[in-house]
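user: can you give me the structure for this one chain? tokens are fine.
assistant: on it. calling the predictor now.
[tool input]
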Amino acid sequence: MRKSLLGAALLCLMSWSAIAAESPMKDGHPDTYTVVKGDTLWDISNTFLDTPWLWPEIWHANPQIANPHLIYPGDVISLIYIDGRPRLTVSTRGEASRTIKLGPKVRATPIDSVIPAIPLDKINSLLKRSRVVTSLEDLERAPYIVAASQDKVVSGLGDQIYARGNFDSNAPAYGVYRQGDVIVDPTTREMLGVMAIDLGAADVKQIQADVATLQVTRSEKEIRSGDRLLESEERRIDSTFFPSAPERRVEGEILGVSGGITQLGQFDNVLINRGERDGIAPGNILAINRNLQVLDEKRKEQVTMPAHRVGLLMVYRTFEKVSFAIILETTEPLLVGDKLENP
């Protein structure tokens, strides 16, 4: 009997040790946290968890609260335990997240007040609006600017421009782009796409045969003859997704960064060589690893050291073969060519 009790005790101890070992909670975490303006989901997750991208796995949606996955300033997030497992939930809603009826009117909070996943102002506007097209032919088939009003060489905000090509009569506006770099996978040499650099936007005023008259409604850079028009892609950067690990195995690398710099830091924007065909989705977290090469003085040869983690990034916009991402954490300056894998 004594042996049985001792065995049961040891089994319980082992079970609780396993649970503790598997716990994602950070040492010294609070039991509650009140969301403040300026917080991001990444900040909040980091307050409770060793691995912030595990947030969705321990989130407990309160069925009594409308839209429990949207978090606002003033909300109180609490750590609770269900069946012995840690769970995070919104225990109290703040004033900003409430909808209050005042007679026939409703006071509602704009969606912009929702706590974002990351500091969205850190996303570079160039990467936010620029696009990756599949091939050079895609750009070459697109309508192109032939002239501007008053024989202007350069056009900007408010100017009238003329373009030729195959226009969609149902498209009220077009983005103005210029061909950027051809993107090639450094390992397979596969062409992954062509960067279409955002120059501005223009509304369609009229179309006659294959000639369209447009007015420039946004100008980021000088617009010239030969620049291409692509149908407007009003894609708002999502502020309500949760950081998450990819659903399948991913291995890739950092291809480049805006501005032509080669060393990267926190909140820099990067292009990576994995996209929708690889199962990448907005919000996916990837670990950034580096294989350091050193010279073995004794044998006079280069030796590759085991990979070590140097940072984390989160994807915020995907294309077929590539994606845009933002650096969330870094322990040392990052480099173009650093490797990526599941966190």
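assistant: here you go. The helical segments are 2-22, 41-48, 55-58, 125-129, 136-141. Residues 15-113 form one domain.
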